[in-house]
Design a protein that fits this description.
The protein has 173 residues and is α+β, with helices and mostly antiparallel strands. The longest helix is centred in the middle third of the chain and has 33 residues.
Length: 173
């Protein structure tokens, strides 16, 4: 953890106060993005005989396996780096800064897409707002609405010929 933090500091990241991550995480901020680092040792469930009550009871013992958990990769679950059969945490830690940069890039793209969608939705919202129209424009809009309604009624397959108004199909000037 010490080497990882020193390398991240050398790359321009900063160590911050606890922010949105759980209180036992070290928060690293870089390029406008936060990551929460935590070292954890999971426990192992063990069944033991209780000599007093003469029955089995469940206890939790340390597993002896260390996990490095990193939050901030865009999912609810943290990224977990742990010892494997061939590679140790120390072997895998070198890839972490590159993976962090990829996560930062993905977060920026996702934010840009969201902002573009927000701008589009705002533009659509402004177009659909009802604004008062001058009298001449209001009458012209009413004529066009009447014409489009007539055209739609003329092509309605469920309407009978008697219900259709042939005079409404003429386009306004």
């Amino acid at each position: 953890m010490n080497t990882l933090l020193k390398e991240l500091l050398a790359r321009g990241y900063t160590i911050e106060k606890e922010d949105r991550y759980h209180s036992n995480a070290t928060v690293i901020r870089g390029y406008g993005h936060e990551f929460g680092f935590r070292i954890r040792e999971p426990s192992v469930m063990v069944q033991r005989m209780d000599t007093f009550y003469h029955r089995m009871r469940t206890e939790y013992d340390p597993s002896g396996r260390i996990h490095l958990e990193v939050e901030g990769f865009g999912s609810w679950a943290p990224k977990v780096v742990r010892d494997g059969k061939r590679l140790t945490i120390e072997d895998r830690i070198g890839d972490l800064p590159a993976q962090m940069l990829k996560a930062i890039d993905a977060a920026r793209r996702k934010k840009a897409e969201w902002e573009a969608g927000e701008r589009r939705r705002e533009a659509e919202r402004q177009l659909t707002e009802v604004r008062p129209l001058p009298e001449g424009v209001r009458q012209e809009a009413a004529d066009w609405i009447e014409w489009t309604t007539g055209v739609a009624d003329a092509y309605d397959p469920l309407a009978t010929w008697a219900e259709q108004l042939p005079g409404r199909v003429h386009k306004p000037r």
